[in-house]
Design goal:
Helix content is 38%, strand content 21%. It is an alpha+beta fold. Helix 6 (136-152) packs parallel to helix 10 (228-244). Bound molecules: histidyl-adenosine monophosphate.
């Protein structure tokens, strides 16, 4: 056997119903808020993420599935959707096509991380982005959307954390203050942090090395270095959240691991998930569109990890596809052909119908019908064929009735409608 690649997963019947529930709920909620779906390629130019996600991030430094293709081009499997969506927005002039460009994407992402519960190398995101709105009401809408999605899914034990990392003006001032505050302690931090201090000091907040944490916990807070406009923006976001009754906490260390963030950052954390507890992460990125060659437009969005939402769902959530409405059993070769025709007719009429393909005895076919829990078995034998009838057996009561061949589809339709929830 050739096993699946480490960090990738097959999603099998039994689990897939939970995925379908998450995806359909997400589509419903996103569309309520005015977001429309788009899809972008899984493979992109490497430089899109080197520039967009940022050279100083762990994603670009350590986790990209990047390679040279047969044409000599450096390409990568996308590690996140935001730079791809920005690229598509710029490349197709979506701001002309849409009054307020509000889009969502559902699909696989790839990061070469150490696999563990809730962390995979191929995983899936529900990603939402909106462009061109500076007003803090959109920050609150995006946070509300993420929160509402999690609530609608019935996920309990969650916490919303928010922060502001400032703008292109006050952000760099904070970075300087960070390095100054670290002083001699910088040399005590891990080698990744040394690199981060030179490339983008804010990334020090992404450090997970236990020995570094006491030093990092003592560092200044972004929130205390915000310029006037960033402060007013953040206070407005907080006011909206309070007005919507969405509970949140401030998290001073929420710098979010990606270089493009400006102002608002947020996460929804789940407490039944283990170490990988971020269900949703997002924030504002006011310089990214410009940096990727587009017009000077702001943006904000979030991504939710599908695997993690599925893990956090209540245990009984997700519709398992039900049994067929009817099982068709044939006695003898002549009847078999009629049986296959009837199955097709039933299906085209919207009835879930099943049949035996292996010329089993009637007993064998009845066993099979029982195994798939079909409530009705439609039996066609020589007699029925001659009389233009079908024998219907109700598997629950054991009752049998003869129904005219011409009437059978309507008969089963009525029975199925009466027994479906
Ligand atoms: P991110 O925080 O890197 O943000 O990822 C968002 C979510 O994707 C995480 O909260 C988590 O649920 C899920 N996730 C990330 N890595 C993995 C993994 N290896 N295995 C399973 N799930 C994972 C972004 O990707 C940004 N693009 C979000 C964004 C959109 N910001 C603005 N717009």
């Amino acid at each position: 056997m050739i096993p699946a690649i480490r960090g990738t997963r097959d999603i099998l019947p039994g689990e897939i119903e939970r995925w379908q529930l998450v995806e359909s709920t997400a589509r419903e909620v996103f569309e309520l808020y005015g977001y429309v779906e788009l899809r972008t390629p899984i493979i992109e130019r490497e430089e899109l993420f080197a520039k967009g996600t940022g050279e100083s991030t762990d994603i670009v430094q350590k986790q990209m599935y990047a390679f040279t293709d047969k044409g000599g081009e450096r390409v990568t499997l996308r590690p996140e959707a935001t730079p791809s969506i920005v690229r598509a927005y710029v490349e197709h002039g979506l701001e002309q096509a849409m009054a307020v460009p509000k889009v969502y994407l559902i699909g696989p992402m790839f990061r070469y991380e150490r696999p563990q519960k809730g962390r995979y190398r191929q995983f899936h995101q529900l990603d939402v982005e909106v462009f061109g709105v500076k007003d803090p009401s959109i920050d609150a809408e995006i946070i509300d959307l993420a929160w509402t999605l999690v609530q609608r899914l019935g996920i309990e034990n969650v916490e919303l954390v928010i922060n502001s990392v400032g703008c292109l003006v006050c952000g760099p001032r904070f970075s300087q203050a960070l390095v100054a505050a670290l002083g001699a302690d910088l040399s005590k931090l891990c080698s990744d942090c040394q690199r981060r201090a030179a490339a983008n000091p804010l990334r020090i907040f992404d450090c997970k090395v236990p020995e570094d944490q006491p030093i990092i916990d003592r560092l200044p807070h972004t929130i205390d270095f915000l310029c006037e406009e960033c402060r007013a923006h953040f206070e407005a976001v907080e006011r909206y959240l309070a007005a919507y009754g969405i509970p949140y906490h401030l998290s001073h260390r929420l710098a979010r691991g990606i270089d493009y963030y400006t102002r608002t950052t947020f996460e929804v954390l789940g407490f039944n998930l283990g170490a990988q507890n971020a269900l949703v992460g997002g924030g504002r990125y006011d310089g990214l569109v410009r940096m990727l060659g587009g017009p000077d437009r702001v943006g904000i969005g979030f991504a939710a990890g599908l695997e993690r939402l599925v893990l956090a769902l209540p245990p009984t959530a997700g519709r398992v596809s039900g049994p067929p409405d009817a099982f068709v059993a044939a006695i003898g070769d002549a009847s078999r052909d009629v049986a296959f025709q009837l199955v097709r007719e039933l299906r085209l009429a919207g009835i879930r119908a099943d049949v035996d393909y292996e010329s089993r005895s009637l007993r064998g076919q009845m066993k099979r019908a029982d195994r798939v829990a079909a409530p009705l078995v439609l039996i066609i034998g020589g007699d029925e064929l001659a009389r233009g009838q079908v024998k219907v057996k109700d598997m629950r009561t054991g009752e049998q009735a003869d129904v005219a061949r011409a009437e059978i589809v309507r008969f089963v339709q009525a029975r199925a409608a009466a027994s479906r929830p």
